[in-house]
UniProtKB/TrEMBL annotation:
Disulfide partners: C13-C44, C23-C34, C45-C61
Family: Belongs to the CMC4 family.
PANTHER family per record: CX9C MOTIF-CONTAINING PROTEIN 4
Lineage start: Eukaryota, Fungi, Dikarya, Ascomycota, Pezizomycotina
Subcellular locations according to the entry: Mitochondrion intermembrane space
SUPFAM superfamilies: Cysteine alpha-hairpin motif (SSF47072)
GO terms under cellular component: mitochondrial intermembrane space
Name the UniProt record assigns to this protein: Cx9C motif-containing protein 4, mitochondrial
Coiled coil: none
Entries under Pfam families matching the protein: CMC4
Keyword flag Disulfide bond: yes
Membrane-spanning segments: none
Alphabetically ordered keywords of this record: Disulfide bond, Mitochondrion, Repeat
Amino acid sequence: MTLQDDLAANPPCHPRACAIQNCLTRNGFDESKCQKQIDALYECCNAFYEKNGESASTVSCPKASLLRLKMEQRKKAT
């Protein structure tokens, strides 16, 4: 699925949130093995907030302010 498909899902970004859960389950909940899926969810959530505004919400994404913090932390960690 593309970013646009995932943004159009109900709820938005849900396929990417499910991909993280599936990855964690397959890998004994070792988050380090699911970084690609986490990055993909954050990409979708960031696009969701850019499109709908900072006050928008979807169960698949952290609040906009927390998302930005998490994205910044991940950027610094690399």
